[in-house]
Amino acid sequence: MQSDGYNLSDFFVRVGVKSGGCSGLSYDLKFDNALGEDDKLFEDNDVRIVVDKKSFLYLVGTTLEYSGGLNGKGFVFNNPNANRTCGCGESFSL
């Protein structure tokens, strides 16, 4: 966030679920600074993460990890609720 010019005290990482992707649902990850009434706020390692109420139902128990391995850098969603995921890991179905 800092390298992209976002102030850590004003912005957070918003994680959500939206329709789309080859498996039916896809993960949505972006920086945001508008906290909604139904949002759930989490903090880990000084990073604030926000999930809206609807997406939270799909993401309960999910871990979000950053991978910098040989296959490229990026976030990996480990969602125990997903029955099926696509090959790239960016979409899932329940």
Q: Which CATH class is shown?
A: Mainly Beta
Total number of domains: 1
Radius of gyration: 14 Å
Strand arrangement across the biggest beta sheet: 3-4-1-2-8-7
Counted beta strands: 8
CATH topology: Hypothetical Protein Aq_1857, Chain: A
Instruction: Determine the mean pLDDT.
Output: 83
CATH architecture: Sandwich
State the end-to-end CA separation.
31 Å
Portion of residues in beta strands equals over 45%
Low-confidence stretches: none
The CATH superfamily turns out to be: HesB-like domain
Q: Biggest sheet: strands, sense, closure? A: 6 strands, mixed
Helix content: under 10%
Helix and strand sequence: EEEEHEEEE
Q: Please give the count of helices.
A: 1
Question: Can you walk me through this structure?
Answer:
Helix content is 7%, strand content 48%. Strands 3-4-1-2-8-7 form a six-stranded mixed beta sheet. The chain has a two-stranded antiparallel ribbon with strand order 5-6. It is mainly β and 94 residues long. The longest helix is centred in the middle third of the chain and has 7 residues. 13% of the residues are buried. The protein is built from one helix and eight strands; from the N terminus they run E-E-E-E-H-E-E-E-E. The model has no long low-confidence stretch (mean pLDDT 83). The chain has one domain: Sandwich (Hypothetical Protein Aq_1857, Chain: A). It is globular.
